[in-house]
Amino acid sequence: MFKWKEDYSIGVELIDTQHEELFNIANKAYELLKNDFFTDKYDKIIEILEELKEYTIFHFKTEEEFMLNKKYKKFFSHKIEHDNFIQKINNVDLKKVDQEQQKYLMDILEFVVQWINQHILERDKFIMVD
Fold first, then answer.
1. Which of 47, 53, 114, 123 is least enclosed by beta carbons within 10 angstroms?
2. CATH top-level class for 18-129?
3. In which element (H, E) is residue 94 found?
4. Over 70: is that where the pLDDT of 130 sits?
5. Where in the chain are the domains?
6. Contact between residue 8 and residue 116 where contact means Cβ atoms under 8 Å apart
7. Which helix (H) or strand (E) is 77 found in, with range?
8. How confident is the model over 88-115, as pLDDT tens digits?
């Protein structure tokens, strides 16, 4: 399970609340990974991927508007990271997801956790400093 901690807060309530939702999506993937009652998890994995994609598009738009309004100097490099996140989700090979469901659930979890730790903790925090 993934828990929100104040360490993840960047000090902007709207963005922090949206970041918390990423934890909720990661927890859905974790719960599905641990659920032994579903032998075929493909449809649920696709739902999680779609939710992750739709939510991050929404969140990135909010965050990018905030950065533009603040005249954040590193906006373009930050946006590239957001675009790469969406591209990675769009490039998921659904045939491989179906063949290796547990592996792809782990991949989703690792990807989101890595994003939280590297992007939110290391990049988003600078939005308020810069």
1. 114
2. mainly alpha
3. helix 94-99
4. no
5. 18-129
6. yes
7. helix 75-90
8. 999 999 999 999 999 988 988 898 888 8
